[in-house]
Amino acid sequence: MLSVVLFKPEIPPNTGNIGRLTLGTNSRLIIVGEPSFDLSQDAAVKRAGLDYWQKVDLKQYPDWKTYKNNTTGKRFLVTKFAETPYYRADFAENSHLIFGGETRGVSEKIHRDPEVTPVCLPMSGEIRSFNVCNTVAVVLFEALRQLNPDWFSGTPYRKT
Length: 160
Fold this sequence. Notes:
The protein contains five helices and six strands; from the N terminus they run E-H-E-H-E-H-E-E-H-E-H. Strand 2, helix 2 and strand 3 form a beta-alpha-beta unit. Strands 3-2-1-5-4-6 form a six-stranded parallel sheet. The longest helix has 16 residues. It is 29% helix and 16% strand. Helix 1 runs parallel beside helix 5.
């Protein structure tokens, strides 16, 4: 199972949207560190996650060390400071796609972690970064495409 890892998320609607995305792709959502909002109480998280939020496969860890000690798999840090584009990453079934907080990113310690492979979503223009929800979607769907190309073929949109 793929995991989307949010490091100290700061914007409730982003977390809610990402939670819904992980549910729709049979992925896990992992939150490392303390979010800047209350996951159980924030209306914006619930609004963005709709009525799916309680169904999200959510794991929380208080810090990076606890997260690393309790999880296994390849770890990819999606960062604008990487030189390797995400589509050149060699994703595996148990990969962790790590995304920093919206305004702070991740600590230098995580950037230097030898067990983490940095990848980027190439950008041009006058922006500092892409929205984290959009970035998660792009990278997560590339990982899904690499692991199971048939997942994308012939699956019609289902009305609910």
